[in-house]
């Protein structure tokens, strides 16, 4: 974890305007054996659908028709992506998106960090980035549906189960 | 309950094209002492915000800025309303809306039936109308967040709590 130098909680996040090839916010700088790399967050929707599919494959999610994935990105309120940048190569290493009524509520879906980058604090940074973006749009009720194995991950971020007994419910076609 | 004549499960719902003043689907016809009335469902977004506020007031919900309510209606994927029509008078008696990514997921919010019209099966019809509309748009994952006192209401409609341990979680600003 100390491996990563945090820039996220600085007053103004460093932008990547110095990296004109990529619109986003520079959040992490790390140095390892193979030279410097940056972790950059972005809300740009122009994501290669095959690269996104590969990321989702890497955590074992079922494949979805790319046509529908494209539509879901277009109609999400917020699309957050996390990239590792080395020189002029970039790699999609994390993703999340949120639906919203643009006024009161947002619901976060499809949170994922590539297994090679998990357990370094990056999932937490990605979620904080999503919350910051939603808050900056004046959304105050942020919800999500958590798989049982990640409830504690979200709880550490301040998400609550069943506040005042409110419960998530699901309807699927027969 | 027998008071209402159900038209909802007919193959093609009767439309109110015979009532040109109102775009919607005729769902119920009832006769009581004061003459015939129709219950009509609509997805028209052109709802008087004051009339909606009155409906929400009637079940004790906290007031919300009308400017934000307007925005939320504009950016909801589906807005369902339920009206009682007597002669050429119409009254808003039920409401629900859904956010969505237009592809996979929808989340239903703000389900309400006016207290004078509750416990007659109309809330159930309103929810079936919402589900039907979402299904017709090929949305298969319908979710909502239920207050504790209405969990059974949704359960009767086929909504499940925690399928495979998935749980709804909430984040609010401090
Ligand atoms: C869930 C996921 C996004 C977490 O990403 P990550 O980068 O590994 O998480 P972080 O390293 O930022 O962890 C942040 C904190 O949560 C904890 N945490 C991470 N995963 C956890 C888990 N599955 N259960 C409990 N705690 C977890 C970490 O220990 C860390 O705790 P700390 O702040 O006390 O150090 C990632 O594991 C993933 O993509 N999983 C597969 C897809 C998935 O299940 N997505 C969620 C669907 S609802
Ligand atoms: C919840 C609400 C929409 C239900 O509307 P309604 O028109 O009274 O419901 P219906 O008459 O269609 O009831 C359908 C079925 O659910 C049952 N039901 C209704 N309200 C219920 C409740 N609060 N708890 C348990 N069961 C309930 C009915 O008995 C009926 O059962 P049946 O099919 O076996 O006969 C309405 O009570 C309401 O607007 N409440 C205030 C606002 C609110 O709480 N909204 C939900 C926020 S999450």
Defining traits:
homodimer, 174 residues, alpha+beta, Aminopeptidase, 7-stranded mixed sheet, 4 helices, 9 strands, globular, disordered N terminus, binds coenzyme A
Can you summarize the main beta sheet of chain A?
7 strands, mixed
Give the oligomeric state of the chains in this entry, treating copies of one chain as homo and distinct chains as hetero. Answer: homodimer
Helix content of chain A: 10-25%
Radius of gyration of chain A (Å):
16 Å
- Low-pLDDT regions of chain A: 1-20
Secondary-structure element pattern of chain A, one letter each: EEEHHEEEHEHEE
Percent range for β-strand residues of chain A: 35-45%
Query: Strand order, biggest sheet of chain A?
Result: 1-2-3-4-5-6-7
At a glance:
By secondary structure, chain A is α+β, with helices and mostly antiparallel strands.
Q: Could you describe the 3D structure shown?
A:
Two copies of one chain form a homodimer. Chain A is an alpha+beta fold. Chain A has one domain: Aminopeptidase (3-Layer(aba) Sandwich). Helices cover 24% and strands 35% of the residues of chain A. Chain A has four helices and nine strands, in the order βββααβββαβαββ. Chain A has helices at 49-58, 66-75, 122-136, 151-156; strands at residues 5-6, 25-32, 35-42, 78-86, 89-100, 105-113, 141-146, 160-161, 167-171. Chain A has a seven-stranded mixed sheet. In chain A, strand 6 (105-113), helix 3 and strand 7 form a beta-alpha-beta unit. Chain A is globular. The interface between A and B is large, with 50 and 50 residues. Strand 9 of chain A pairs antiparallel with strand 7 (141-146) of chain B. Bound molecules: coenzyme A (COA) (2 copies). One coenzyme A is lined by residues 59, 111-113, 118-124, 146-147, 149-150, 152-153, 156 of chain B. Residues 59, 111-113, 118-124, 146-147, 149-150, 152-153, 156 of chain A line the site of one coenzyme A (COA).
């Amino acid at each position: 974890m100390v491996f990563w130098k945090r820039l996220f909680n600085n007053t103004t996040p460093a932008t990547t305007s110095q990296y004109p090839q990529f619109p986003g916010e520079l959040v992490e700088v790390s140095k390892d054996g193979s030279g410097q790399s940056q972790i950059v967050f972005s809300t740009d929707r122009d994501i290669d659908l095959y690269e996104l599919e590969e990321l989702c494959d890497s955590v074992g999610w079922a494949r979805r028709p790319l046509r529908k994935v494209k539509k879901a990105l277009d109609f999400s309120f917020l699309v957050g992506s996390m990239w590792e940048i080395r020189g002029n190569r970039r790699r999609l290493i994390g993703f999340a998106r949120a639906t919203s009524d643009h006024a009161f509520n947002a619901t976060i879906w499809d949170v994922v960090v590539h297994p090679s980058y998990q357990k370094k604090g990056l999932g937490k940074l990605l979620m904080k980035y999503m919350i910051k973006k939603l808050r900056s749009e004046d959304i105050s009720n942020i919800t999500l549906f958590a798989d049982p194995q990640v409830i504690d991950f979200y709880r550490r971020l301040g998400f609550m189960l069943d506040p005042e007994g409110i419960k998530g419910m699901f309807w699927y076609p027969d």
